[in-house]
Amino acid sequence: MRSEDAPAEAGNSLQETQFTAIPDDAEPNQELIPDRSKHNDQNNVRQSNYGTANGSPDATLPNNDAAKNAPKPAASPRALSPDLLRGLLMVLQAIDHCSVSQGAWRHGVALESEQDGTIVKKWNHPVPWTARMLTHLCAPGFMFLLGMGIVYFGRSRSKLGWSSWQMVKHFAIRAFVLAAVNELFFTLLFGRGRIIILNIILLALAVNYLLAGLIWLAVDASEQALSTLLESIYSSSDDEDERPLLQEETGHSSSKSNSTRAVRLSWHIHNFILLALTIITIAWNHWLSPHQGHCPHNTSPNYSGPTQPNSTTLGPWFDFWFLTVQFKLVISPFPPLAWLSPAILGLLYGRIILSRT
Description:
Number of strands: 3
Structural class: mainly alpha
Strand content: under 5%
Order of helices and strands: HHHHHHHEHHHHEEH
Strand order of the largest sheet: 1-3-2
Shape: globular
């Protein structure tokens, strides 16, 4: 209904509303009810489009039961966390190396030097100090992941039926390739015939990869042998008179429990051995360094560190494996055996992680 006094233009701007006709027998007080059927039909059409791909009014909502029962994508057998840690270490190392190549700031946490036994008189500025301190996690972090990866590799190849000699051959070939790349790239490119060995981390990686692989094979073999020995000891210690009674009460033999006890004890013993090897390989860096890793007390303002060379009495080729050395035809800032401890720790950590899977 439209008022006769209202102008026509105003009626066009109002929302169009339809009313139902009043029947003749309607009561006088019956209110007029708007007809909302047209708007309800539009709402129903819009609601039926939810969750559809083509927006068709005839499309229906997805079946929840079908979505739950749908096959899930198979999980990748590759562990993701080691790759994430490796990527983080690569980013930190890239920041440090780019700052050196671009000359962004002075390299090192101290303004003097990072050599063993050098007294720090003044630290670097906060930004380069922080970047360099974070970069110190890279070398041991890569060695740690190396040891952890050997455990994963050994487990997967054991399931494929590889023998111990096949794994030894694999470790030896990869170590040889790393050492050959170090010689061909660094020694020939930068040495230019003046040196025969320029150890820029690849040689240390090759040595530690081979040693960590051999250590893992020895631990794996001895762990099985020790568990067999312990199982026989547990079995022989059982009283012959009590064994039948135990079988009658439990319904099964105690050999299974003896086997479980033997395997667990052997596993813990070898984890302790790996932990002890980690501590020893850390400690020999202090034992073999000048003044055993301690700077002698000297109050002279001009004293910058010990004058004793970074060497032992066992000769330069012995020092090559444990200390940073530079002598005729050889430059080695990354002593191979000085980085063995994080690789052994990676073996231990990998064994613990895989035991829970």
